[in-house]
């Protein structure tokens, strides 16, 4: 992929669908020419896959740029961090020869995901009629405590005695609630012990990251904001309540890091050449035959929970909306090779609801669930594209398909991915 990041360039990368668009792979490619990578929302509900040669990495909270030697990695204030889980991730990377000390910086303002958040997440998921299909990582309850102003933050780990006292009291209060609901309760001694150990080991990574980002910006470093999840999992603009609990859209990169909005130069949206979704909630272009076909190829199983992803045709109604709210300047389209064997490839160009044609998704999920896709069918190329390395060499039908996606969504496609490897990526003219 060409166009190395120029000095000082700040780019945001967002998922344009329901997550798992291949963000990790594209981040890894862009980081070849970028100095600093920043996660600004979400937690270890994310699973970003990067394949480097024969090695496969799945990153959950640590920015995917960590795999590029020497790059600086920041986990911003807008994230939620499970201290025990992030230490496991750090140790897993170190064991594979990836250095984190002096390269990974965690905001002291980021909120903590604690064991009781996971138990509450699981408890809520078990309630009849309330299932969201979460990753059960405690994300929703942790963000809930943040907004309710009863959460703990990373800087609390730097004052272990006060933290321990407050945490014990909080665990007792929560256990009383869980008992009343018949939900599993927190093991208080184990929680206090595990958190004390994690606090000690995480201390060297916890800093005030706003000042760090500011200084690096003044020094002319280039930045990439690594979006997690995707536009339709956004707490405001997604298919509420079947969403995650953070702002996954471009604006979240600024509130989640303290980086000023006027300093952002470009927004890159990542979309699959088709659509996938994990968990509950409406998905108008879902097509189970496509799902069976992709699962049969061993594709589209979740990187975090292993669940089979629901699959469907490219939904231009959603992606057009994603372009508008994120201000997407350009698209990277991944997994084009997933469509290689198909004769005909439908694209959802609009919805039909009660006899009316809709060009944007309705806000109510009850209405969205009743929308029928209006499909336009494109001719398949029936050729293996995974070895192709240039736009020119793509089959004419594949070029026509991609041109149509750019036209339907309103922004140019500048990057195409035809396989999980770094080298299986090229630019469009
Ligand atoms: P993310 O959460 O957006 O980073 O995406 P995931 O890592 O959860 O899921 C994307 C999956 O698609 C991973 O298994 C990637 O290795 C894989 N992938 C990314 N781009 C391509 C591509 O162009 N072709 C193929 N075959 N796989 C891809
Ligand atoms: P990446 O960054 C796909 C989904 C869950 C569920 C909903 C709420 O890898 O693209 P949560 O645990 O966040 O409360 O679950 O959001 N979800 C994702 N789906 N990719 C992700 O991340 C996701 N993170 C959360 O499946 O439907
Ligand atoms: Mg993923």
What does this 3D model show about the protein?
There is one protein chain. With 429 residues, the protein is α/β, with parallel strands linked by helices. The chain folds into 3 domains: 10-108 and 207-267, Adenylosuccinate Synthetase, Chain A, domain 1; 111-202, Orthogonal Bundle (Adenylosuccinate Synthetase, subunit A, domain 2), CATH 1.10.300; 270-427, Adenylosuccinate Synthetase, subunit A, domain 3 (Adenylosuccinate Synthetase, Chain A, domain 3), CATH 3.90.170.10. The protein has helices at residues 23-30, 83-95, 115-125, 139-148, 160-181, 188-202, 209-218, 252-255, 288-296, 316-326, 365-370, 396-409, and strands spanning 10-15, 36-39, 48-52, 55-59, 72-75, 80-81, 104-107, 111-112, 206-207, 223-226, 266-272, 275-277, 310-312, 314-315, 330-334, 344-353, 356-358, 372-379, 413-417, 425-427. It has a 10-stranded mixed beta sheet, with helices on both faces. The structure holds guanosine-5'-diphosphate, 6-O-phosphoryl inosine monophosphate and magnesium ion. Magnesium ion is lined by residues 19-20, 46-48, 303. Residues 15, 18-20, 45-48, 132-135, 137, 139-140, 228-230, 233, 244-245, 278-279, 303 line the site of 6-O-phosphoryl inosine monophosphate.
